[in-house]
Amino acid sequence: MSNESLIDTLVGELRPVKRQKPLRHAIWLLGLAVVELAAFLALGTMRPDIGSALGTAAFWWKLGSLGILAIAGTLVALQSFDPSRSPRQGLRRWTALAVIALLVGWIIDIGSAGVQALVARLSWQMGLECLVTMTALSIPPLVALGILMRSGASTDGSGSALAVGAGSATWGAFVFAFHCPSDDPFYIVVWYSLSCAIVVGLARLVLPRVARW
Amino acid sequence: MSGGENEWGRLMAAAQEGQAAPYRRLLDELRQWLTRFYARRLPPAFVDDAVQDTLIAIHEKRHTYDPERPFKPWLVAVARYKWIDRLRAMGRSATEELPEEIAVDDHESAVTSSIVLTELLGELKPAQAEAIRLVKIEGYSVEEASARTGQSGSLIKVNIHRGLARLAAMVQKQADVE
């Protein structure tokens, strides 16, 4: 096909389009987050000791860190769906935030009373349940952001996929934090990081392929 | 560019609303710009396909352009993405020979025209650059390139594949190579 015929075809197929608006997408995702959290808690999953947990630094560290990381990751992902914006700088900032969150957790951990064996603190059975539930809760945002990535025009598929994975994983972990009875920083760092790694790895593996254009 | 960068942005904004005449003018002007862009970055045999791929991508992703921002960075980002795509595709089809019409007679103009690509080849290992230059730019067959360089046929293919993958990764990392 000659360039002229191609241009004729493209002009013939021209239809009005709705412009991509990251702010509109962000509001839509916020709605999804609220619906997911409400649906999860409606299943009776709220931790029974939430009243006392609200008075501990570790609970707020967990919730605050995950909320900030989820918002930051999702915003980096949304911005990267514009072809002229790279997600790399945003990913570096997200990583720096994650490191700060881990350091704060470590400081809180130092202040906690008693020295328990690390293996016992991992609570393997509960940890594995946490891992599965947290990963499952990351799937709705992963699919939603994947759809937005596909309809957008990311020119850095790997970077966008990492940002989508980071945002989705911490989003799922944030929702799960309302259920998880453990506020032990060591437990949280190990199991939550593992779940994040699975979701980020899945996003990195799948999304660059399905969002090619 | 006939109407200036902002003019292209205005034409694209009109196209987003479904206006055919501004869209046709925009695509005509972009076709010329893209032909120049890829002529400096790809062997002549791949320029037309890259221009067409990019025009289709611009059409499919036109909703991602924000008229409140300059048009050129958006256009360059799309063109670079398709350039990287084309380099990767060339690497995957390492054994594919160029069409007859651009083969050996036109060596000099082929090398001169894809000047950015030639400059980038300088960043590769000499054996990789030589294999790509001979087969993908100058149009020699793998066997001919093998005879000229002393590399085996399979090594020529491996060097083309790895060299083009490395080139694509280098371009991805750079803001732009003018």
UniProtKB/TrEMBL annotation, chain A:
Name of protein: DUF1109 domain-containing protein
Species in which this protein is naturally found: Sphingobium yanoikuyae
Superkingdom field: Bacteria
UniProt xrefs under Pfam families: NrsF
Membrane-spanning parts: 26-46, 58-78, 99-119, 131-149, 161-179, 185-207
Keyword Transcription: no
Keywords: Membrane, Transmembrane, Transmembrane helix
InterPro entries found in the cross-reference section: NrsF
Automatic annotation (TrEMBL), chain B:
GO biological process, one term: DNA-templated transcription initiation
Keywords: DNA-binding, Sigma factor, Transcription, Transcription regulation
Stretches assigned to the RNA polymerase sigma-70 region domain: 27-90
RNA polymerase sigma factor 70 region 4 type domain mapped to chain residues: 117-167
Pfam families named among the record's database cross-references: Sigma70_r2, Sigma70_r4_2
Keyword Ubl conjugation among record annotations: no
Source domain of life: Bacteria
GO MF, one annotated term: DNA binding
Similarity comment: Belongs to the sigma-70 factor family. ECF subfamily.
Identification of the protein by name: RNA polymerase subunit sigma-24
Organism: Sphingobium yanoikuyae (Sphingomonas yanoikuyae)
